[in-house]
Structures are given as structure tokens and as C-alpha cells.
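Handout, page 2. Input:
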Amino acid sequence: MEIAALSMAAHAQPVADRAEAEQAMRLLVARYPVQTAWTGPTPSVDDVSIFRVTPTVVSVIDYRKGFGHADLVAC
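Output:
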């Protein structure tokens, strides 16, 4: 009964602009600087697929307000 989370419905599309993809990778690495489980080199944008996600509906789930409680937020 302590669950608090987000659930999201969204549209996804591949990021085609190389500069934008490289910026996304830089932001990801900066966000998680110490990854003890990852022992290899950081993948390049040529090694991964990067998608832009545009939310359509977000559910704010908070079981502290009752089992199954969710507030819907339209985007």
C-alpha cells in the first residue's frame, strides 16, 4: 500500500538528428555517472536507437490514498 509511481501512454518516434541524439546520450551519461554494473565503453549513437517520447496521458498512481488510486493527467 506504499506504491507511488507514474504510468504513461505516449507516442514514440526515432530521433533522426545526430546532434540531438548525441546530446541525449551526453545527458544520459551525466545523469548516471557511476555505473558499476556496466564495464564496457559507453555506446555511441551508432550503437543504440534513441526515441523521442511525447506523452498523451499520465497516471499518477498513489496507493497511499487507497488501493488502485490513480489521478489521470491529460497532456
